[in-house]
Amino acid sequence: MTANLLPALARVLASIDAPRNLRALYALLASFCMAGLLLASAQSALVREQSLMSAVWMGLGLAVAFFGVNATGLMLMDQARGLPVRDPQDAFADALRSAHRVLLVLLGCLSLALLAGLALAGLLWATRWPVVGAPLLAVVLPVAVLVLGGIAFTLVVLVGPLTGPAVWAGRSTRGALALLRQRLRHGLPETALLMAAVYLMTALATAAVSFVVVSGGRLMAGLAILGAGVELPAGQLLAGLMGLGPRGLGASGVPLQGGALGTAALVGGGVVFAIALVLPTLVWLRGCCAVYLAVTEAE
């Protein structure tokens, strides 16, 4: 793996072209928009004190987002492997058949992490015993810090990023767990370096998209007010760009003004917010696919 690190890094950096996969862009954008509408319905039901319906809408929204991400990941894996990218409807159908494996792998890894946390909690509880408590704490404290920090690091650079790509590439639940175990034992530093490049690319993509949205939004607000004579506060025009809908704007203490124009401004800004959220997510998912292919092809 070390000898192939530079080609692997080049492969990961090539993931910046993820937004060119228009089918994946469409699938993720549609999923996020639908999930947003369902979550808004959950919020409305909660305001009406309909807790059961709110939970139903919330569950549906999370399910749509989860399967949408998996469908997008399948299309990005096709792109990363140089295969013809499947149609969005085929990707959603495949995600419905295989996405449960992602949940099973994540639940298995989180269960192991929880067991380790419970064991450390038991040792910390034992430090209250007289005589042995203080010496035991002196030993348990550094061990707990290293173990918990190592678990968090592994979840961020190994389990979270590679579970999805392993399933999208066709591995079973057992095969995905075997891959994670093998990378943890023999390839964690290399995998962490590659994932650091992915996180850096994602951060740069987020910064670039944020600059475009904020600068374009401020210029648009000025043009709308001064050039077109739209009688709306600049803050309200920009609120939609931050993901605030009419109800979210009211909850923030800012009254909705402008009637239909004000609502339209928030809806249009929400579309921009969805696009700004989708683009860095595409880069991250494509980068995770590239890291998976790099580490598996080097075995």
What this model shows, in words?
There is one protein chain. The N and C termini lie close together (7 Å). The radius of gyration is 23 Å and the shape is globular. The protein contains 10 helices and no strands. The protein has helices at residues 5-13, 22-47, 51-80, 88-126, 133-168, 173-186, 188-227, 234-239, 246-251, 260-297. Helix 1 (5-13) packs parallel to helix 7, helix 3 crosses helix 4 (88-126) and helix 7 packs antiparallel against helix 10.
Rg calc: 23 Å
The best one-word shape is globular
Low-confidence stretches: 248-254
Please report which band the strand proportion falls in: under 5%, 5-15%, 15-25%, 25-35%, 35-45% or over 45%.
Answer: under 5%
Bin the helical content: over 70%
Number of strands: 0
Task: Summarize it.
By secondary structure, this protein is mostly helical. It has ten helices and no strands.
Descriptive labels:
299 residues; mainly alpha; 10 helices; 82% helix; 0% strand
List the helices and strands and how they pair.
Layout: H1 5-13, H2 22-47, H3 51-80, H4 88-126, H5 133-168, H6 173-186, H7 188-227, H8 234-239, H9 246-251, H10 260-297
